[in-house]
Write a structure and sequence with these properties.
Layout lengths: L1 H25 L15 H10 L4 H7 L3 E9 L8 E12 L4 E10 L2 E12 L4 E8 L6 E7 L5 E9 L6 E12 L2 E9 L6 E14 L6
Antiparallel strand pairs: 1-2, 1-10, 2-3, 3-4, 4-5, 5-6, 6-7, 7-8, 8-9, 9-10
Helix pairs in contact: 1-2
């Protein structure tokens, strides 16, 4: 019960108290502008506020902010001829640096589509997280990511329900930052017949303009 009360109270007060906590970090005598609910200590609240603050991992995601154009290839099956593909991607920093929103416009062999993604880093779970949607389906792809030891690559593991093959399936994607204005994505999926992973897409994106944080 204490955990439920604590979580609910943080959800209600977090937005209003962020400024007060930031000031309190400079002046430990500053009181919170409200009474904490029964069972919650000031240490509990301060821990929650620290968990809600963007950090170094969020700065890694923020490297995507801006407008990008990508050229690449896609494969519909192992051994199939590649299909030329291109994409425009616009990434915006939202929620005061806590999340990145991506908007996509693509062309895959003459078939056009648009999509959207949200990317973040959960300080509590200690992992990158993502949700993606597109006009190519009605389902939502959900992913978790981890950072390589050299800090250059995020490895994403997504799960979703595949319309072509039916049922649950997975997708692995590597996001490698070559330099400040170049990002390479490789995407892999299991062959529905053999279960063996094969490459389904590769893109090289170049930044064409810098972006800015959203007011949201």
């Amino acid at each position: 019960m204490r955990r439920i009360i604590t979580t609910a109270a943080v959800g209600v007060f977090a937005a209003a108290a962020t400024l007060a906590f930031a000031q309190g970090a400079k002046d430990k005598t500053t009181d919170l502008p409200f009474d904490l609910p029964p069972g919650m200590t000031e240490a509990d609240f301060e821990a929650a506020m620290r968990a809600a603050s963007p950090g170094d991992k969020h700065k890694i995601l923020a490297q995507l902010v801006g407008v990008w154009r990508g050229e690449g290839r896609m494969w519909m099956a192992p051994g199939a001829d590649p299909i030329p593909a291109k994409q425009k991607a616009t990434f915006t920093l939202i929620m005061e640096g806590r999340f990145v929103q991506g908007e996509f416009e693509g062309d895959m062999g003459g078939m056009t589509y648009v999509g959207m993604g949200l990317y973040g880093y959960d300080n509590v779970a200690q992992r990158f997280e993502s949700t993606m949607i597109a006009t190519m389906g009605t389902g939502m792809m959900r992913g978790e990511g981890s950072l390589s030891s050299d800090g250059s690559t995020i490895v994403w593991n997504y799960d979703y329900h595949c319309a072509m093959h039916g049922g649950h399936t997975t997708m692995r994607e590597t996001q490698r930052h070559v330099d400040a204005d170049t990002v390479v994505f490789h995407t892999y999926m299991p062959d529905p017949d053999t279960g063996r992973e094969f490459k389904v897409a590769e893109y090289t994106f170049k930044r064409v303009s810098a972006g800015a944080a959203s007011a949201r």
